[in-house]
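Good morning C.,

I know you're traveling, so I'll keep this short. The sequence:
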Amino acid sequence: MLRRGCGRRSDAGAGADADSDAGAGPRPAVVSVILVIVLLGFSVEPGALLPRPAAVPMLVLQLVTCLPRTRRLRGAWTLAAQILLAPWSGLPGFLAASVLLVVERPVRWALFAVIALTAGPLAPGDGGIYATLNGIGNAVAQGLIVYALTRLTDLYVELRATRTALAAARVAAEREQAGRDLDAVLGAAFAEIIRLAGRGPEAAHELVSAARRAAGRVRTAPTAQSPAAPGTPPGAVTPRLAWPIVVATHIEYLVVGTAFLIGSGVAGARLAAYTAALVAVVGLQAYHSMPRPPGVRPRRARWTLGAQLALVLGVLAAPDGPYPQVAAFAVASLLVVLPGRLAWPAAAALVALVTVAVSLREDGPDAHGAALLVLDIVVIALVFHGLALLTGLVHQVRENRAALAALAVAQERRRIARDVHDLLGYGLSAITLKGELARRDPDPGRAAAHLADAAALAGRALADLRAIPGDGAVLTVAAELASARRVLAAAGIVLLVRGDQGAVGGAPEAVCATVLREAVTNVLRHGAGVRRCEVEFGPGTLRVANDGRAVTAPTPQDGLGERESGGNGLRNLRERAAALGGELEAGPAEGGRGYVLTLRVDHAPVPG
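The tokens, ready to paste straight into the viewer:
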């Protein structure tokens, strides 16, 4: 975009190098520095910094309007103050940007056009076509770039601040869907078991079959798929929508640059050649500035960057060519395309080369003019580098945000599947046992009691099922011991408890209760000839052993109570133990008689 006076131009957008880390990118304060730099750069006029007194409050108001920490203050009062200051500040582009940021659609674009057209006749100069186009171009390009950078900065801050919020929303949606799926798959099964238990001993066979089918469904319960949550706040300028603004500012430079060539008296073949060179340089810069993820270089960047540098150096050597400020586009391309360790030295070298080449020309500027030329080139380069940098950072944070949400959902699915296995497997095994006892017991009273127990277990399992999508069912060691004692006694197995459960230490009660439940499930499903089950609490340990005969190790498809070879039950318990910094051991007892499950926390020695 053209800058005011001396035929100099200044293109849009700003930036400083803000290297992002491997996680969420630089802190929001660092990103805001990019916006501050571009606003300061746009406020500089040839020969002075903020030469007009009204430009100082205009800049302050623009900072209030644009910065994330102060944007809550922007509104009608800041816009009204800028309208009053605009004619005397020489910064109509700031007013144009504020209109886009404060005024609602679609009026804002009409007001933006009015401000841009008004800036032409008010621009400094001789009032000719070049001065008029220069004024309009400044207002359009500065307004669009400040608007884009502000919205990108806002979006960056919003995305970064709501990373965990998106993950929480996705997890909540996953839980809701999982609740519906589990209730459809297993809730009806438990309701059917309760109904069959109420029919008496003649329905015991059907109850056992229903319990076994439900156990199979536990292993094949569907994984919930939550709907995708939006990754971008509504109304934000996304990296994709930043591209039209980049195109518009480049077109503005071409229009005003061509007018500058015509106004300087260049005609004929030289005008055509210089215009073609201008189009090529600006077009390549637009190509290099296309929104893309961080670290992704433009295709064939080596050739496109080389061609742009060659054209810029050719323009510098040509007589009466385009203003040397066009070199700013090549400097911006170096900053955008090359890695940071090479980009800044290369950009500085090109700026120095342009300065020397222009100073050696017969019509070259003096020292003061050369300094102003360097300032123009640096501002333009930082502007486009800043736009590309912020676009990339927004893309990076949005991708990290989505990845964090996906990870949270994956962990929640794993947690739900683990809880389904660990919480429901015991209940279904106990229900199956009670149904078998009711079917075989000739005494109608005892059979009815077994069925009543099965109905109670089904009700408890149904409550656990509905608690799983939330924070999970609350298990206690006392409740699990009492339940295990009743169920094992029904199966003719004696339960012996030793030690104080408080001695384990370091392990939440729910984990100890889950280990107890899984151990009892092992006995019910896979124990052969078990007559005694021992639960021993010791310093940092929980040990559950039974005296059953060795049985064939269940496969992972069995779902519950697996041996060392693998399977969901033990794998789930190992994950729970590892989360505590402990470990879980499982395997045959010494001599091959029985099976031992040991939870160790703080790696305390197992009692003898």
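Safe travels,
E.
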